[in-house]
Design goal:
Order of helices and strands: EHEHEHEHHEHHHHH
Helix content: 40-55%
Radius of gyration: 21 Å
Number of helices: 10
Number of strands: 5
Distance between the termini: 49 Å
Largest sheet: 5 strands, parallel
Strand content: 5-15%
Structural class: alpha/beta
């Protein structure tokens, strides 16, 4: 099985990878012996031999192996794609390979390796563009609820306008607001006092204001 997780929203890409790794660990590999992560700690580059050896190996004392690979598609040119595809074409059915990429979805989808991978059998893709508008507000509201916090509607919109679609920044600000509220409902005043507006959020708010005034 091949899984490609990619998009401009690095936060949700990483979140999805973690969810899949955690689910795999719980079901197939609680010891971590059959899970391989690339690039390996302390290394910036992917070693062709190490990656494919892991992907083509059968699981040790288990049913499945998972190999997680970051940045391969973006970092591989057309000439090098064939070597990787030949290697991945030989993996056993017991291996699950996750490719994760951060960057423009359009650019990634034009890459030779991406096109070749999507032609392999049993491929699943998950795309995560940056959230905007109503979808961003829904995500923020859901995140606050999942973390055990509460926020009123106007405060939620102010929070979204201040921070914008940077979910790394947003997640940090949500944590601060929940801790500050101490079980109370986050208000407009709390958002104003606690949230550090990002430059991207300021541009986001400006564009919203321009749209409303048209």
């Amino acid at each position: 099985m091949y899984i490609i997780i990619y998009g401009e929203d690095a936060f949700r890409v990483k979140q999805r990878v973690k969810q899949m790794k955690d689910a795999f660990s719980k079901k197939f590999d609680p010891t971590g012996i059959n899970t391989n992560i690339f690039p390996q700690a302390g290394k910036e580059k992917l070693d062709h031999g190490e990656v494919l050896q892991a992907a083509c190996s059968y699981p040790f004392l288990g049913d499945k192996r998972m190999v997680v690979i970051g940045g391969l598609i973006e970092g591989t040119n057309k000439d090098a794609s064939k070597v990787w595809i030949d290697g991945f074409g030989r993996i056993p059915e017991s291996t699950i390979v996750i490719f994760y990429e951060n960057g423009s979805t359009k650019k990634l989808e034009k890459k030779s390796l991406f096109k070749a991978l999507t032609k392999l059998p049993d491929v699943h893709t998950y795309t995560y563009p940056k959230l905007q508008g109503l979808e961003l507000s829904k995500w923020v509201g859901s995140c606050i609820s999942q973390k055990g916090g509460r926020i009123d509607g106007v405060a939620l919109q102010n929070l979204v306008a201040s921070v914008g679609p940077d979910l790394w920044h947003m997640s940090n600000e949500i944590d601060k607001l929940i801790a500050y509220a101490d079980d109370a409902v986050n208000s407009v005043e709390m958002v104003s006092d606690m949230v550090r507006a990002s430059f991207e959020g300021q541009i986001f708010a400006l564009m919203d204001a321009v749209k409303r005034n048209k």
